Amino acid sequence: MVKTLVLVRHGVSERGSEDMSRELTRAGQRALSANYPHIFGLLGAEGEEAEIWTSPALRALETAEIVAEALDAEGLEIHDSLYDQDLPALQAELEHADAETLVLVGHAPFLGYVAETLLGFELPLTKGAVCAIDVRGSLGHQHECVWKQLGDVREPHGKLLWLVSGPSTQPWETLDALDEACAHAATNLEDAYTEFRVHPEDPAVIKAFRFALRGTQLLTKFFSPLLNEEAVEIAEPVYRLMLGATTRLREIDGFSDTVADLMESGELSQGSKLVSAVGAAREAERDRVCEGLRKKAVRRSLRCALDELFEPAWSDTVLQDGLSFEDITSRFDYMLETIDARLFGLDMTSFSEVHHARREVREVEHILLHLSDTLGEKRANYAQIMQDIDSELSTVCTAQRNISLVKEWKDSMDFRDVTSDLAIVSEHEKVLIKRVIEGRETSILR
């Protein structure tokens, strides 16, 4: 004999598909999974032997499965009456129910109508809402009369024990957006790595690979306080290893670009042997990098890091509470404040300071690239500002690296025939740095 009837409206579901096959949104699932253990804990010992009936619609079935997990219950009974909103059929089924606690998972407005006829007043059953009703004839009626009187609001026979509104999905919608950003970054890195293994001779490919690496590294760093420590410990060494392994190759490519520009401007002759000397240095470095990155251990490590991105291991607190819009924007705003402080009075003659400043600027660029929709239009507008700052700092960084390469190569036997051309490159870069410094504002953010 049923003593407690629990009514559950399904959680937030997808729109647009055929009604029976509409699924819960991922945010809807997460919201219910986080809240139902606490909500159904209100049943106490009565919930231990609860029976669960559900509508056959997919969104209701998925909700019922989360209820079953919260109650540690086995098995679900599908009742078409809960989808068809067939009150006489449901009445007949209830008369033969054996469980003392019965959970009905269904839809509006039907469940609201059932609650109203039992209680005599309307209940606001939002999506995911749960209410428990004592149906033992609390107003002096016999239990067997309760189901026969369903539909007659003049004769309420139940007593409301408790009602909990459906949980907000907003915190989990934010988390879903972060999941999508991580998956997108992982896909980009996976594709870029594959392309690099096939075409390591293409400077554009190595540039794209490093861009994807840097993006995933910075995204992981941005999310690190929200992730399990183990997830960060798995990913960070992999990104650092691969970025370190490819740094010199990218520096040589940057030098090659400068040489090409100087040849186009006429500062270097079209027949300069510097092109072939730099090309030989790049080929040797490319072979070294490819040999290292093709090792099975490296590929396995990258695979593990990618898996962590495709399925981020959020901390228990995040999984329980979700994330608010402010959780993300406050971290981003702090990044902007940090960059502004670093740019103010930045010593452009210091390679270390310029390098660190550019890295922080690029962190913001990557976060905006992946999270612009989450951060909102106002913050997304910083993208162009960051690109302008990055361009300025990159000009100085590249010039400083080119000067360092000239210092290294001028005493090398491989470059003995092009020392004069190396000197031209070095002098050009020194002039370029001076011009940038003289024309630079104190802080572009101010």
From TrEMBL:
UniProt cross-references to SMART domains, sorted A to Z: PGAM (SM00855)
Residue intervals of the CHAD domain: 198-390
Gene3D superfamilies: CHAD domain, Phosphoglycerate mutase-like
InterPro entries given in the database record: CHAD_dom, CHAD_dom_sf, His_Pase_superF_clade-1, His_PPase_superfam
Protein name, per record: Putative phosphohistidine phosphatase, SixA
Organism of origin: Lancefieldella parvula (strain ATCC 33793 / DSM 20469 / CCUG 32760 / JCM 10300 / KCTC 3663 / VPI 0546 / 1246)
